[in-house]
């Protein structure tokens, strides 16, 4: 909602400081997002009087004037405006003035005549769109008086952030009410300059049918619960007076013509949208509020032909729809420059019907925005009567017959019972009864009875459709009393008995471990462009780029590596812990699973001068090391196996839960290979590791060079050695070297293993170890055809 | 210790000289005194066997003490010389050369913020609750008192699941949760009050990526329900949080606001730390920064989960760790937080560049 400072000042009858207004509204729940100055600073302009007007010798449309700007010098000014008259006062830009559009006023010749300054229109001052002539000033101010003294300081436009529960703040009156409450001053509706029509009688009450000014009015759809109407004949459609233009402009609306401006003015003032039809275009003549017929369409005000959604509430004449109720009127019945008779509509429409219709047609308007939040069903009559008087004042004409107020079903504003004890229970403080009453009266509620049975009856105002129950009043009391006035004191509480969700701790455990491996955590978008067949689709994604939910972590990490490469960063180590999704089918919700993924490429460690420029890059063995650790962190109990050219982790039941290997990516020529892996995070109870007594006797270590088949897995050799060596106190087998090449028998490679022997109860002798080695050699030869390289 | 026997005087003198022996004389002196065959002390010890019992008693103890003293003196001198040699060697190295570094892992800035928030609330008796990211209309909206087809829904531009798995068949429309609040419902349906939980997690909105919006972001929410909880507790708890999180001098204010699932509702602002409240572009000249939304749990939400609002009251709050991270690290664009630029991650995470 855009609100004008001057308009609010007219309500409050006192000058307002923009920053103070913003602060007060913010503390009442309607923060001001921006404050904009409206119109130029008028400091450079002065009032000038034209003392003489004569024709321009060389141009029919120009006049040569003599201007008195109070300086003592009379200036010759060439002027093209048709409305310049001798004796008239106008805003004047002296020589040297810079106009709002940046133009510098200099002495120059116009068609041969010298001009020493400029007489200005409203638009040239940045005060409006009116450029048809000079801004004629009706002021007693002497020539030379600064324009700011005549027109006042520039207006300010507040961008008020109005929450959806507060439709009343979509009108200046509602905002003024809040400011009055905060400033503790009264407020009242601004007077209409030169107001006429005070003698028009109040509208005639009717049910769902009436005749107004010869037009039949009928309500057949109860989505319209009130319809006030008037027919005003003999209006002159034309420009609005300056004060009206200024009000609208202050609130961010452009002046269109006096009739439309009146409806907009009342909407911005009282949050009551209205519509004016050209009564001459109404067929029947009739106006109906009815349910849309199948396939009905309408050319709306914006010139677009729209299909009216089935079941929508429409305004129609005897033959056709002339408006989508509460959203937009029709083009054919619009008020135009030639309109002389106006049918004025002021109605209450069901918010949900308006919302459904505007969503279906995809058209949000100032009117629909207000109707769908709820207009004041009971205040509509006041708004209507103000609009009628305004129309008569600015556009002339007379009311044809009686105005009508159709109310198909009568209703009263809700009455709410409030218990002061409940206020205390929720807010935690005991408020005096007088303070509760002040808060409620301040928002416009009527307190019907005093608390004798512990309850107060409160009639809420019609402009607050959000106030439906006691708790709504509790909030209002807190709001008006001031949140600042509620104490901030720590009171005893009962701690939560619920345990942490174990998934949270599992994720934290994995994260800590991965950070310890030197990886940087990322948080990529869970919506992706492509994925596996089980990746769930989104119904309404913003773009195909984000059309799927991810079913894996690593692909997104690979994209991030590519982005690093694009920025010439070659050393990249990333991991992410997050949710991945998998379609479950059968209309059930997708399976959500926590997973951790990593990618590494580039230097294994930061480059150092001692390496002499040599660079050791991450290889598959580094990746496997990270993977082993990741599996231990995320999926305890899973084992890592070789499958094809990569490793997979399998849970004890043999189901795959992760993988590790080379990762496909657009690798630039200068970059290193990309490796990665991913594993499902399981929630497991992690018991503390138990102490095993540390060895007390020394170990004996022997290295053996083994001749192993080219395709023979070393893991099988280690397994056999450990199994057979158990009774010889073999503690560990470590692969220390691999050699392939010259000097070896055909089809063999040399693998060096280090065997560590240790007995728990004594120091092993050389003889013990020699004996063990002998046995193990025999086993290797017999069972795996593996011999010692030296033998 | 004294070696007063006259025959020991020369050895005692040599013992005193050991600490000043140069490196190249140390080995020779040790052999001369302690050598296995011709060492002077060795010979004296060997000669003990030829002495009478009285003489043995007089000399034996002294000789053994002398041997131990020599052992200790040679070892000490050797260690001292080695240390000196090392120091000389070290002086020849250019110690201004760059060190050998290793890669340092980093947590994501949003993780850092979330973890810190969780820890503060743990100290206030809260525990962590989680919930699924795919939810139903019922849990995301209806149970949380969003009136059907109400403008309040406009604040939650929702992403729905499509095709199979969209829930069409069973008439349960599935969506990506727009806030972590459905977990409030899950917690309250899970057992009787009191409740005191914080709920971190990812939420989704159908918003285009721009410098200040993302289609998915983290949220951390809190819920406390018990007998006797009031707005005073809400203010006190969240004020305490703000001062733990942002510093003990942090100014805090509460402003009325609107959320369908709380009433009364509020926004909590903290004093802008960039301008110290004077007003600057970051705080739009107000001197305040919005940090979280909060309120008393709406009675209808309590009724929806079968709790009697006349007996149970509570408060809830929620905040956006990405926004907090942006403020904390001075980030101009939220999209930085969704990328994997190593330079950025190590800069804000404090890792090896
Ligand atoms: Zn600031």
Describe this protein's structure:
The complex is a heterodimer of chains A (791) and B (353). In chain A, a hairpin with a 7-residue loop joins β3 (45-55) and β4. In chain A, α11 crosses α12 (470-481) and α16 (714-725) crosses α17. Chain A is of the alpha+beta class and 791 residues long. Chain A has six domains: 2-39 and 155-183, Phenylalanyl-tRNA Synthetase, Chain B, domain 1; 42-151, OB fold (Dihydrolipoamide Acetyltransferase, E2P) (Beta Barrel), CATH 2.40.50; 204-406, Phenylalanyl-trna Synthetase, Chain B, domain 3 (Phenylalanyl-tRNA Synthetase, Chain B, domain 3, 3-Layer(bba) Sandwich), CATH 3.50.40.10; 417-462 and 469-485, 2-Layer Sandwich (Phenylalanyl-tRNA Synthetase, Chain B, domain 1), CATH 3.30.56; 502-680, 2-Layer Sandwich (BirA Bifunctional Protein, domain 2); 700-788, Alpha-Beta Plaits. A seven-stranded mixed beta sheet of chain A has the order 28-31-32-36-35-34-33. Helix content of chain A is 25%, strand content 26%. Chain B has 353 residues and is α+β, with helices and mostly antiparallel strands. Chain B folds into two domains: 6-91, no CATH class; 109-349, BirA Bifunctional Protein, domain 2 (2-Layer Sandwich), CATH 3.30.930. Helix content of chain B is 38%, strand content 18%. Chain B contains eleven helices and nine strands. Chain B has helices at 9-17, 23-34, 40-47, 53-92, 109-122, 137-140, 182-189, 231-246, 299-304, 321-329, 342-349, and strands spanning 127-128, 134-136, 174-176, 195-204, 216-226, 252-259, 262-271, 288-297, 313-319. In chain B, the strands form two sheets. Chain B has a seven-stranded mixed beta sheet, with helices on both faces. Chain B has a two-stranded antiparallel sheet with strand order 2-3. In chain B, α5 (109-122) crosses α10. At the A-B interface, α2, α7, α10, α12 and α13 of A face α5, β1, β4, β5 and α8 of B. Zinc ion binds at residues 272, 274-275, 279-280, 282-283, 287 of chain B.
């Amino acid at each position: 909602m855009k609100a004008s400072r001057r308009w609010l000042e007219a309500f409050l009858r006192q000058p307002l400081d923009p920053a103070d207004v913003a602060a007060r509204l913010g503390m009442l729940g309607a923060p001001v997002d921006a404050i904009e100055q409206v119109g130029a600073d008028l400091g450079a302009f002065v009032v000038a009087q034209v003392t003489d007007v004569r024709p321009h010798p060389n141009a029919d449309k120009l006049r040569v004037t003599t201007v008195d700007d109070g300086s003592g010098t009379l200036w010759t000014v060439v002027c093209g405006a048709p409305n310049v008259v001798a004796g008239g006062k106008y805003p004047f830009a002296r020589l040297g003035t810079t106009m709002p559009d940046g133009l510098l006023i200099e002495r120059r010749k116009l068609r041969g005549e010298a001009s020493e300054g400029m007489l200005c229109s409203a638009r040239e001052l940045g005060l409006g769109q009116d450029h048809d002539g000079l801004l004629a000033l009706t002021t007693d101010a002497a020539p030379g008086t600064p324009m700011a003294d005549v027109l006042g300081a520039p207006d300010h436009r507040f961008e008020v952030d109005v929450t959806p529960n507060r439709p009343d703040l979509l009108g200046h009156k509602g905002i003024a009410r809040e400011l009055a409450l905060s400033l503790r001053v009264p407020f009242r509706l601004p007077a209409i300059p030169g107001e006429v029509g005070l003698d028009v009688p109040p509208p005639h009450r009717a049910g769902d049918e009436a005749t107004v000014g010869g037009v039949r009015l009928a309500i057949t759809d109860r989505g319209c619960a009130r319809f006030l109407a008037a027919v005003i004949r003999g209006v002159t459609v034309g420009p609005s007076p300056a004060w009206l233009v200024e009000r609208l402009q202050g609130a961010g609306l452009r002046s269109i013509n006096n009739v439309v401006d009146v409806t907009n003015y009342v909407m911005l003032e009282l949050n009551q949208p209205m519509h004016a039809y050209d009564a001459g275009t109404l067929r029947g003549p009739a106006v109906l509020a009815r349910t849309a017929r199948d396939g009905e369409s309408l050319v709306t005000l914006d010139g677009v032909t729209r299909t009216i959604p089935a079941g929508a509430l429409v305004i129609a004449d005897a033959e056709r729809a002339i408006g989508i109720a509460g959203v937009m009127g029709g083009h054919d019945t619009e008020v135009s420059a030639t309109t002389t008779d106006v049918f004025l509509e002021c109605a209450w429409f069901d918010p949900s019907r308006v919302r459904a219709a505007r969503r279906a047609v995809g058209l949000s308007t100032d009117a629909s925005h207000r109707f769908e939040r709820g207009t004041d069903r009971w205040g509509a009559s006041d708004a209507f009567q103000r609009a009628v008087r305004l129309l008569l004042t600015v556009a002339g004409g007379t009311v044809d017959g009686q105005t009508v107020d159709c109310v198909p079903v009568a209703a009263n504003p809700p009455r709410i019972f409030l218990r002061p004890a409940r206020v205390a229970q929720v807010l935690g403080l005991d408020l005096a009864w007088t303070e509760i009453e002040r808060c409620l009266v301040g928002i416009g509620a009527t307190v019907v009875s005093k608390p004798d049975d512990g309850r107060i009856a409160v009639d809420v105002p019609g402009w607050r459709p959000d106030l439906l129950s006691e708790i709504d009043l509790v909030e209002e009391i807190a709001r008006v009393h001031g949140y600042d006035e509620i104490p901030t004191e720590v009171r005893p509480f009962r701690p939560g008995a619920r345990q942490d969700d174990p998934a949270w701790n599992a994720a934290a455990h994995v994260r800590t471990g991965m950070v310890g491996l030197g990886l940087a955590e990322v948080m990529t978008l869970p919506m992706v462009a492509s994925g596996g067949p089980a990746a769930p689709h989104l119904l309404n994604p913003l773009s195909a780029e984000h059309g799927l939910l991810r079913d894996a972590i690593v692909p997104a990490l690979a994209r991030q590596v590519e982005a690093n490469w694009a920025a010439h960063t070659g050393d990249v180590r990333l991991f992410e812990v997050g949710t991945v999704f998998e379609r479950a089918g059968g209309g059930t919700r997708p399976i959500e699973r926590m997973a951790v993924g990593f990618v590494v490429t580039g230097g294994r460690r930061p480059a150092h001068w001692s390496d002499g420029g040599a660079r050791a890059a991450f290889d598959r063995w580094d990746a496997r090391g990270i993977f082993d650790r990741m599996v231990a962190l995320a999926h305890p109990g899973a084992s890592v196996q070789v499958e094809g050219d990569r490793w997979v982790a399998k849970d004890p039941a043999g189901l795959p839960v992760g993988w590790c290997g080379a990762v496909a990516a657009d690798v630039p020529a200068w970059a290193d290979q990309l490796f990665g892996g991913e594993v499902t995070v399981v929630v497991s109870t992690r018991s503390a590791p138990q102490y095993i007594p540390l060895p007390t006797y020394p170990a004996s270590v022997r290295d053996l060079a083994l001749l192993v088949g080219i395709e023979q897995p070393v893991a099988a050799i280690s397994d056999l050695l450990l199994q057979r060596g158990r009774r010889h106190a073999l503690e560990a087998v470590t692969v220390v070297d691999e050699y392939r090449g010259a000097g070896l028998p055909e089809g063999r490679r040399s693998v060096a293993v280090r065997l560590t022997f240790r007995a728990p109860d004594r120091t092993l002798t050389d003889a013990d170890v020699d004996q063990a080695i002998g046995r193990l050699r025999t086993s290797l030869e017999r069972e795996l055809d593996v011999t010692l390289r030296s033998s | 210790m004294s070696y007063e026997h006259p025959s020991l005087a020369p050895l005692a003198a040599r013992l005193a000289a050991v600490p000043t022996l140069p490196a190249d004389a140390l080995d020779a002196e040790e052999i001369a005194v302690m050598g296995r065959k011709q060492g002077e002390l060795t010979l004296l010890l060997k000669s003990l066997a030829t002495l009478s019992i009285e003489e043995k008693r007089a000399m034996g103890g002294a000789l053994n003490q002398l041997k131990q003293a020599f052992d200790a003196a040679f070892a000490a001198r050797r260690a001292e010389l080695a240390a000196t040699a090392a120091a000389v060697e070290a002086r020849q190295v250019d110690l201004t050369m760059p060190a050998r570094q290793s890669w340092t892992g980093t947590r994501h800035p949003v993780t850092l913020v979330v973890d810190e928030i969780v820890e503060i609330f743990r100290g206030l008796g809260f525990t962590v609750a989680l919930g699924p990211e795919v939810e139903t209309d019922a849990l995301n909206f209806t149970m949380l008192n969003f009136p059907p087809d109400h403008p309040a829904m406009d604040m939650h531009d929702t992403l729905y699941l499509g095709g199979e798995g969209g829930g069409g068949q069973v008439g349960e429309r599935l969506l990506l949760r727009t806030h972590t609040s459905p977990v409030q419902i899950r917690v309250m349906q899970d057992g009787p009050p009191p409740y005191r939980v914080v709920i971190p997690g990812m939420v989704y909105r159908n918003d285009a990526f721009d410098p200040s919006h993302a289609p998915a972001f983290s949220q951390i929410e809190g819920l406390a329900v018990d007998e006797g909880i009031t707005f005073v507790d809400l203010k006190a708890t969240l004020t305490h949080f703000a001062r733990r999180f942002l510093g003990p001098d942090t100014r805090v204010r509460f402003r009325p606001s609107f959320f369908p699932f709380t009433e009364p509702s509020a926004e909590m602002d903290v004093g802008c730390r960039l301008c110290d409240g004077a007003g600057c572009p970051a705080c739009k000249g107000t001197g305040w920064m919005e940090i979280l939304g909060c309120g008393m749990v709406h009675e209808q939400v309590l009724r929806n989960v079968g709790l009697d609002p006349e007996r149970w009251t509570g408060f809830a709050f929620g905040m956006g760790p990405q926004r907090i991270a942006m403020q904390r690290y001075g980030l101009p664009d939220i999209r930085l937080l969704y990328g994997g630029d190593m330079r950025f991650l190590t800069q804000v995470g404090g890792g090896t560049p």
